[in-house]
Amino acid sequence: MSTFHPTEKLVHLIEWKRKEMIDSAHQTGLSSLQTLTKSIELDHLLNLHQQASTKNSDLKLEISV
């Protein structure tokens, strides 16, 4: 059984959601409710990743000071 670092798992989820959104856009169109919902979900995951990255950067700065 493989284990993922939380950030790695988040990146995997982002990649999966991006693929779902692209597939949805091809099937239902760019402005369909399904595609827009996937886009919002992807935005949420990207925001979480950004927050995690910022916290890690801040932590590294605190440790090095």
Automatic annotation (TrEMBL):
<dbReference type="InterPro" id="IPR036638">
    <property type="entry name" value="HLH_DNA-bd_sf"/>
</dbReference>
<dbReference type="InterPro" id="IPR018540">
    <property type="entry name" value="Spo0E-like"/>
</dbReference>
<dbReference type="Pfam" id="PF09388">
    <property type="entry name" value="SpoOE-like"/>
</dbReference>
<dbReference type="InterPro" id="IPR037208">
    <property type="entry name" value="Spo0E-like_sf"/>
</dbReference>
<protein>
    <submittedName>
        <fullName>Spo0E family sporulation regulatory protein-aspartic acid phosphatase</fullName>
    </submittedName>
</protein>
